[in-house]
Each structure stands twice: as structure tokens, then as C-alpha cells.
Amino acid sequence: GFARFLQFLAVEDQFPEWKMWDNFVNNVHYPVLISDSMESSHPIEIPVKDPEEIKEIFDGISYAKGGSILRMLNNYLTPEVFRQGIVHYLKRFSYRNTQTEDLWQALSEISKVDVKSFMEKWTSKIGYPVVTVEEIDDSKDEISLRLTQSRFLANGKKASDDTIWSINVVMRSPNGEQKFLLAKETDVVTLPRSWNDSWIKINYGHYGFFRVSYPDSLLQKLMDPISLQILPCIDRLGLQEDCFALAAAGKIPITSAL
């Protein structure tokens, strides 16, 4: 996972005109969302009792999902804090073996954030969530959205498990950016009055390893930002990928995706 994440991070730093993160979302992030939405997927972390078993888990989940959630964590902590945490981790454990918890501990010490709590479900559980959005209180002073998370399955079935992920939800409108930590099944986020009647893009930058299901009212407001290319390439691509995946799973009408 680190190999996949850092190869894009390093090239982006040296050649920003190559737009490596657009490439990452198109060729790494979204393909693994497809494979990880299958009931046959597996968690990133799997107990290995024999070296031969390692070959079985060196697949798209280990590399692509691993790289994707590290990109998500990098954004959540901020790139500079993440970098400082990695330096701290490498110095502490140089010439030694480590476990996942050692990395989370080192990052927590630098960031002052409980990284283990934030990341644990992303590495230990199978699959990922879809965040369903509802408008619930569009008053003169503010707009409120109800966000509900549930595991997304490509076949449209209801998942048998009730995993609750910690989701850093980044929302953008023409009037600014808001971040909200969704750490339970359902929660409500209240947005500023200035966001009323404007488009709202959720999971802006597509750092989060989840899909978003919009109500028609919010989806329609995104049509102009898409056609006028106000939204960056990553967000236009991500919105399209989410809509078609949700339509294929029977979660939204195919007319919404089209």
C-alpha cells in the first residue's frame, strides 16, 4: 500500500503537470472500489500462518486499497503532519520489524489525533461504506444534511455485517469547504447559510474511500459545475463513477446516472 501511494506522491511532487492524482483516482482508487464491493473481497490485514499464504493476499486490495486509505489519511492529518509522522516512525523503528499499530502510534504522537481509532476499520474489515445524503432542514439561516453510512455491495444486497467506519467527509461549495467526521451510522451536519441554493460536492477531491449517494435535489445542482468544468477532473470522474455504481446496484435510478 505504501509502495502504491508513494510512487504517485513522489512523481506528483516532481512533475505536477502530469496530474498524477487524477491518474491515481482513475487507475487505482476506483478500480479497487469495484473489487472491494464484492462479497468475495477480503480485509487489508489478514493473519498469515505460513509464508506461502502471503502470495494469496498480494493483490489489488493490499496495493490499491492500501494506497487509497493512506492517501485518505494523508489528507485527514494534512500532508506535512503525515510526513513528520512517517519520519518519526522510520527513525524509531530503523532496522527493526513493526506491526500496523506501531505506525498508527507514531502518527498519533505527531498529529495528536487517535489514528488507530480512525483507521482500524479501514484495515481490519472487509469492504467500504456508501454515504447516503438527505436534506432535512433547509431554513433561512442554515442547511442541514443527514448523512447515513452502510456497507456498499455491488450486487445491491444488504450487508450481513454492521461495520461503522470513521469517515472524514470533505464538502465543498462555491462558498467554502467544510469537514465533518462521520463516526456513527447516522449523523447530521449543519452548513452555513451562504451554502443555501448553491451546489454541494461531497467527498471533494475523492480522498475518502467511500461512495456518495445524493438526493436528486443536490445532484441536479451539480450539473452546471460539471458541464462548465468548475469541478476538478477528479470530482467529475468520481461523481460519475459513484452514480453508475449505485445505479448498477439498484440504489438510484439509471436515469440519475445518465
From TrEMBL:
Leader sequence residues: none
GO MF, one annotated term: metalloaminopeptidase activity
Peptidase M1 membrane alanine aminopeptidase domain: residues covered: 1-122
UniProt KW Glycoprotein keyword: no
Key word Glycosyltransferase present: no
Record Pfam families: ERAP1_C, Peptidase_M1
Protein's GO biological process: peptide catabolic process; proteolysis
Gene Ontology CC: cytoplasm; extracellular space; membrane
Domain ERAP1-like C-terminal: residue ranges: 199-258
Gene3D superfamilies on file: 2.60.40.1910, Neutral Protease Domain 2 (1.10.390.10)
Organism superkingdom: Eukaryota
Keywords: Aminopeptidase, Hydrolase, Protease
PANTHER family per the UniProt record, alphabetical: PROTEASE M1 ZINC METALLOPROTEASE, PUROMYCIN-SENSITIVE AMINOPEPTIDASE-RELATED
UniProt similarity note: Belongs to the peptidase M1 family.
Protein name in the entry: Puromycin-sensitive aminopeptidase
Species of provenance: Hirondellea gigas
Taxonomic path: Eukaryota, Metazoa, Ecdysozoa, Arthropoda, Crustacea
